[in-house]
What does this fold into?
Amino acid sequence: MTSCSSLKNVYLSEIETDIEKNSDFPIETITEKDIATLPTPVQRYFRHCGYIGEVKMINAKIGFENIFFKRAQDKKWMRLNCYQYNSVSEPTRIVYLKNNILGIFPFEARDKCQNGSGNMLIKLLRLFTVADAKGVEMDKSALVTVLSETFIIPTYALQGYIKWETVDDNNAKATLTYNGIKVSGTFNFNDKGEMISFYTEDRYFTEKDGTYKKIPWSIEVDDYDEKNGLKFPSDIKVIWHLKDGDFEYFKGEILNIEYNIMK
It folds into this structure.
């Protein structure tokens, strides 16, 4: 399929398949009972951001704007168009990215976590595959990325494949176990209840020679937005913590989140 289709068509097809698979997911609301055993800062998040009494999210489409990506510390920022879909019955995340290199050559990427496996597929000119990364390092990295987005689609926090530990009043550790792979990270919250950062040492950095190395990785949230009574992270930046200094390589704004997509 990927050899003859644009990656956008691949992305749309994978979303359609996932929506059909979860079409009979039960419709329930988030209650105080659901969050009663979660760490205190996680409970504060649900209450402060307005999720108590809301319908549980089975999936979501995330709309972005002002997305920028940097391939290396010494490279310039590159603007991207980004489209993302997540679902929660399994830890699933499918992202489509596109841009024109030098304003001329179409560049596409599809980054996926599904069935416990990770895959980054990149095409140039919609024909030439320049990357098709798979393997256990990609699986772990993809799963910990899903974990990092728990509070963008908060019902992730209620799934059995995520276990919680209280660190203190403003920090909680989460461990995601799926398909024999275990990853973990720590969420930091402010006193209001907003999640403001996520830190993990379970993500792999791709070295120049193509090998993988575990490097500390974090997400920072600079602002929140509110729509239809629900607060959600808006300004986000993603950082590798390298030995020679921090490498911020992704930044952007979440414009809107559409929950419970049925088609």
